[in-house]
Structures are given as structure tokens and as C-alpha cells.
Amino acid sequence: MKKKNALSTTQTIMLAFLAAIAGGSLLLALPISAADGSAVAYIDALFTATTSVCVTGLVTLPTVSTWSVFGQAVILLLIQIGGLGVVTVMLFVMLSIHRRLGLGERMLIQEAFNLNTMAGLAAFTKKVLAGTLIAEAAGALLYMTVFVPAYGARGVWISVFNAVSAFCNAGIDIISENSLCDYAAVPTVTAVTSVLIILGGIGFVVWWDVLNALKNYRAKRRRCFAGLTLHSKIALSSTAILLLAGTLLFFLFEYDNPATFGDAPLAQKLSGAFFQSVTTRTAGFAMVPQQNLTDESALISLLLMFIGGSPTGTAGGIKTVTAAVLFASAVSTIRGGKDAVMFQRTVLKSSVSKAVAVVSFSFLVTFLSTLLLKTVTDAELLDVLYETVSATGTVGLSRNLTSTLNLPGKLIIIGAMYAGRVGPISLFIALNRKSRPDNIVKEPSEQISVG
Q1: Are 400 and 291 within 8 A, CB to CB?
Q2: What's the whole-model pTM score?
């Protein structure tokens, strides 16, 4: 009976995220969390807790002026928990009190990070936490060179908050109500934020793979890229392609747009285009008002937001590896091949099936969210689509629609953010279960027409 009623790993992870959101919303609903000492409406507290845990960045109330230092600290804690994953944080606490991880805990880590083995999971968790703290600390110190001279002692808190938010791809800041638009011409802020976003979104598995490849290169003089796993090769190459292509397209479409960076010097146009290409990969910070983008740039942003970052990182979206696998499979089919081949390696059919499932799920959530939100609001379709893609991809960019949402609209976006954060994880866990034996009775097959 215990086995029958026990929660599956999928249910455990989903409930852990819900518990973090619920607990965070109760704390944010307290008067002490508000800057003026009067409690905010619970729906806004719930929305803020959800966007923090789901590391999205859409906010109904300005973070800098609405929340007290206590409220901001709660938001920062929720961002850190959401970026690393609730399961990771819980298991790190267990390791800190020297409690050994059982089979159930190891399965949670394996499935939360979509790993192929249970070997070294405790060490992997510790490395994830250590790497995260090092990256965030370095980012905070670099931010301080800008924010401490500008804000004094408060600049330290701003720097820490921004570093954690950028690394976790949350996109929430406590600088101003227009995100980072005031710092579009400050190279340090642009560069540090971009690097933190990329490091957090590339995936923890890729970190260690690159470090191991560098060690092998120094020891055995092997080519570094050739020594990477197929996963890391796909993640790194697809990330580079999307960043470069996005930068070029944003540069071309916004070159003469005075509402964004059309009147800026050439170097700032390039940095602005690059940052827009980076932040749409689920980061959510804005150097230019998103509603001022040309329609062409908005469409490019929608595509990049839908794809998102890489697996096992802090980013959302369908993930770069997913998109790359689907593209390779499509190319192989067009050429008459049976298998997707990438970097001289055949991609498993199970991986292609998972990619199809994740894209289908994300598209379905985005479509339904868009349809429902358009039904309850009078906003333009592009603004609504931008909002829902941003929510499902856990990005956080908005065309000034979030703050105007009514109660049904807020609930729709809350659901989209939660589904976007836990949906792909749940699908991967469900699809990673061992398949049934091949010798069971199967239904007869029949040819159909496709395409």
C-alpha cells in the first residue's frame, strides 16, 4: 500500500515547486515585505513568488519600489531556489548535515538534471552549488564597481541581487522600474550581465565537460572541442549560432530605429543587439523597451524566447539541444535518411521523441495561454503573444502588458510560468522511464500519409 500511494519523482518535483511558491507568496503577503508597510494584494504576492521561483521575471508591481529589503530578500531567496531547482537545494541541505543520499534522493537529482547515470550525484550537487556561488560572487564584485559609486552602500545589495538574478536567468532587478535601460551605454553592466546569463543558461553539465576537455587538452594535447560529449557540442554550437544570428538580425532591424538604439554610436548598436540576443534566451533583462522594437525584431525575439537556453542550467524554453535535435532530424528526413546525425554521431530515436514531446507541450501551453489571455484582455495580439511566450519560456520580457493584467490575466500567466518551469522536466522524467519489454504483444501497424 505504501508503494502504491508513494509520490513519484515527477510528483515530488512538481509539489516542491508548488510548496516553494506557496511559502514565498505567504511571506510576500506580510506587511513587513512591503516598502510602505501595508500588505500587497495576495494575487500580486502569489504572482511575484511564482515569477521568482520559476525564474521568469514578469512582475505586476515594480520590484524596486514595492518591496522592502525583507521582501527583496525573500524574492532573492526564491530566485536562487528556483534557479538551482528546489530539489537541488533540499539535497544540498541534506549533504550539509552529513546525511547520506538514499536511492530516492539520487533518483531525484538524476531526473531533475536529466542525467544518464547515478554515479557521483552527491559530488555533482556540491559542484553545482560551488560553481553557482563562485559565478555569482564574481559577478557581484564586478557590479559593485558601477553600483557602489552610484548608490553607495545600497550598491552592494543591488550588485548581489543583480548577480543572482542574472545567473539564474530571472531578469528581476532592484535598480529602476525600466530594468537596465539606464545602463545600456555602460559596458561593465552589459558585459557582466551577458556573461552571467550565458553561464547560467548553458547548463551545469557543459561546465564540467568543458573543464575536463581542457584538462585532457593540456595533458594529452587533444583537440579541446573534439573531447567534448555530443551533448556539450550541440549545446555550445547551437548557443553560439543563436547568439550570433540574433545579434546580426537585431542589429539590422533596429539600426535606424530611434526608439531603441538607432541614434546610438555603432559600438552601442552592436552591444545593444548582442544583449537583446542574450536576454531573450530566458534572461528577461531589458536594455531597450520591448514595445519599441520593430515587428521584425519582436518576431525574432519570440523565436529566441521559445527556444531558450540549454538543458540542466537555469534557463527555460524548449532548450537549444531540443531545437537542434529536431532540426537535424528534419534535415535527415528531407535527405531520405532514417536517423538524425550530429557531429558524426547518431542521435537516439528516444531523444528525437523526447524533443518532439517537449516542443509539442510548450507549443500547446503557449497557444492555450495566448488564446485565454486574448479573451480576457483588449491588448494587441503581438503584445499578448509576447507575454505568453515569455511566461512559458520563463523569460520575463514584456511589452508593458504585465502591469495592466486583470485577475484572470494574472492567473493565466501564473499557470503559464509554472507549466513552463516544470513541464519539460516532468516530460523528461516521464519519458525517461524504462520502456516495456519488446516481446509484449503490440498492436498491428499501418501506413499513413504524413506531410
Answers
A1: yes
A2: 0.87
Query: Could you give the CA distance from residue 138 to residue 196 in angstroms, rounded to a whole number?
Result: 9
Hey, CA dihedral for 168, 174, 175, 177, is it positive or negative? positive
CA distance 18 to 329: 35
Domain ranges of the chain: 8-431
Q: What is the reported pLDDT for 203? A: 82
Q: What is the DSSP string of 147-212?
A: HHHHHTTHHHHHHHHHHHHHHTT----SS-TTTTGGGTT-HHHHHHHHHHHHHHHH-HHHHHHHHH
Half-sphere exposure in the Cβ direction for 13 (13 Å, CA): 32
Mean pLDDT of the chain: 85
Is residue 261 within 8 Å of 272, Cβ to Cβ? yes
Grid coordinates 531603441 are at which residue? 260
313-369 pLDDT, tens digit each: 788 889 999 999 999 999 998 888 888 899 988 998 888 988 898 898 899 999 999
Give the residue among 343, 299, 351, 306 at the shortest CA–CA distance from 326.
351
Cα of first residue to Cα of last residue in the chain, in angstroms, is: 48
HSE, CB side, 13 Å, CA atoms: give it for residue 410. Answer: 19
| Residue position matching grid coordinates 573543464 | 211
180 neighbors 173 (Cβ within 8 angstroms): yes
Burial class of residue 430, CB neighbours in 10 A (0-12, 13-18, 19+): middle
Contact 107, 117 (CB under 8 A): no
Is residue 420 within 8 Å of 394, Cβ to Cβ? yes
Scan for cell 552549488, then name that residue.
129
Measuring CA to CA, how many Å separate 436 from each of 265, 426, 432, 440, 441?
61, 19, 12, 8, 11
Q: CB of 334 within 8 A of CB of 344?
A: no
202 neighbors 237 (Cβ within 8 angstroms): no
Helix (H, G, I), strand (E, B) or coil at 345: strand
Q: What is the largest CA-CA distance in the chain?
A: 73
pLDDT at res. 313 = 78
pLDDT, position 130: 86
Give the whole-angstrom CA distance, residue 281 versus residue 301. 9
The tens digit of pLDDT for each residue in 4-62 reads 455 566 667 778 888 899 999 999 999 999 999 999 999 999 999 999 999 899 999 99
pLDDT digits (tens, 9 = 90+) for 146-188: 999 999 999 999 999 999 999 999 999 999 888 899 998 899 9
Q: How far apart are CA 221 and CA 49, in angstroms?
A: 49
Q: Which three cell numbers stand for residue 99?
A: 546525511
Q: Alpha-carbon distance 101 to 124, whole Å?
A: 13
Vertex 337 angle, CA 335 and 340, to 5°: 105
